[in-house]
Amino acid sequence: MAVLPIRIMGDPVLHAPAHPVEEITDDIRALVADMLETMDAAPGVGLAAPQVGVPLRIFTYAYADDDGNPWRGVAINPELWIAPLEPGAPDEETEAEGCLSFPGERFPLRRSERALLTGTDLDGEPVRLAVDGWRARILQHEFDHLDGVLYIDRLDDGAWKTVQKIARKRGWGRPGQQWTPGVDDIDA
Ligand code: ZN
Asked: How many Å lie between the centroid of ligand 1 and the Cα of residue 83?
């Protein structure tokens, strides 16, 4: 197992749709083990395969609710359904989202309150997640990664300008930028 480098916004693998997993091989099992380790090391609540440079439709997730109930796993070839968005502007505090591929920053973004995800796990067994609140947000965020969409792509023009300014300052927004949790001094 290993902590993998995480690609940063601008790397092409983050901005293209990922491919379906045809077969769950030992390589896929090893990748998922590394993704879980990398997600925990970051630390993050989700990690999609394109973020570690692999253009496949796989993501891992982990989030404990306020009562400490754990929620952790992997989704392979997922499909996602979401409830319609509530109208209005997102709350600056409670709807602020971040991404390990744009580390150290958070921007408010309106997401659907409820989501249903289906897919398979590493044994090829069906996964079905019907969740709300922050877990629904995580699934929407990670699912977006599989379609080459970052949450910053969904921000309004004003926030997007701020994103561009930050990216310019840090040398992001071009191919080949990455960071490794526990190695590079980035507070994700
Ligand atoms: Zn992300």
From this structure: 21
- The torsion region of residue 107 among left (phi > 0), alpha (psi -120 to 50) and beta comes to beta
| Residue bearing tokens 């709300």 | 132
Residue 185 has pLDDT above 80, yes or no: no
Give the distance (Å) from ligand 1 centre to CA of residue 108.
14
Provide the pLDDT confidence category of residue 48 given band limits of 50, 70 and 90. very high
Whole-number average pLDDT of the chain = 96
Residues serving a catalytic function are 142
What average pLDDT score do residues 87-116 get?
96
Answering whether pTM is above 0.85, one says: yes
Q: How far is CA 6 from CA 9, 51, 87, 97, 162, in A?
A: 10, 5, 33, 18, 22
Identify the DSSP state of 38: H
Domain extents in the chain: 6-179
The CATH H-level (homologous superfamily) assignment of domain 6-179 is: Peptide deformylase (3.90.45.10)
Q: Kindly give the distance from the C-alpha atom of residue 174 to the centroid of ligand 1, in angstroms, as a whole number.
A: 17
Distance (Å) from CA 46 to ligand 1 centroid: 7
Dihedral sign (CA 23, 28, 32, 38): negative
- The structure tokens listed for 17 are 């749709």
pLDDT tens-digit profile of 6-44? Answer: 999 999 999 999 999 999 999 999 999 999 999 999 999
Enumerate the β-bridge partners of residue 60. 47, 74
